[in-house]
Amino acid sequence: VEPSISDGLMEVTASLVQQLAQPGCTVIVFLPGIADITTLFETLAPLDDSRDIGGRFGAVTKRLDCPRLRVFALHSMIPRNEQEEVFNPVPKDQCHIVLASNIAESSLTLPDVCGVVDLALRRTVQYDTRRLMCCLVTTWCSQSSCKQRRGRAGRTMPGRAVCLVPKRFFNDQMPLFDPPEMMNAPLTKLYLQAKQLCTTLVGVTQRLSLPPNIRMDVTTPQSLLRE
């Protein structure tokens, strides 16, 4: 299955956010990248009681039982001063909706998280051996990553988490763990570091901690550096 956000999923996510929202709490929505965060931010704009200018009017309708909402976006490309308020205590009559990439998976602690909506997608840097360059691609999360995201809810209060993939797909198709970063990274930098530390490169691949049955090809970075 192609890792992508299907049509209508943003509207489904907006509906789930309202169902999970509670006064004085935070709901986290995990999205793959800044473009998807921006799209959902605009979709939820009409529900944000703190904004005078709405977004995609008519796309979503606010539930009568939904508390006052405040929508935030968390991403490394967003200026820090625009994100700082999300770490403050949530007002008792308001619910914070935080749209985030995997930056909120384990690096940040948000106050009073009562709900998580996980699209089970992430943007990762992978090395394209054909084009000999790094590319930013959308991939499915691992099961362990989804469980880590799910664990953001219910730490200080009862919480609920929704992962937007079928259970069978989660169990049968999604990897158990994320691959080691060194398997997707360009080897030129690693080669130079190893060369600096070792008087000879003979056997350096055996010293590296690699998964079983996987060999590291050091001929490509060697040839690239010679060129």
How does this structure look, described?
This protein is of the alpha/beta class and 227 residues long. The protein has two domains: 9-172, P-loop containing nucleotide triphosphate hydrolases (Rossmann fold, 3-Layer(aba) Sandwich), CATH 3.40.50; 181-226, no CATH class. 28% of the residues lie in helices and 20% in strands. The chain contains eight helices and seven strands. The strands form two sheets. A five-stranded parallel sheet has the order 2-3-1-4-7, with helices on both faces. Strands 5-6 form a two-stranded antiparallel ribbon. A hairpin with a 4-residue loop joins strand 5 (121-128) and strand 6. Helix 1 (9-20) crosses helix 2 (34-44). The protein is globular and about 65 Å long. The two termini are 39 Å apart. The model has no long low-confidence stretch (mean pLDDT 82).
Précis, in short:
The chain has helices spanning 9-20, 34-44, 103-106, 143-150, 167-172, 187-197, 204-207, 219-226, and strands at 25-30, 68-74, 94-100, 113-118, 121-128, 133-140, 160-163.
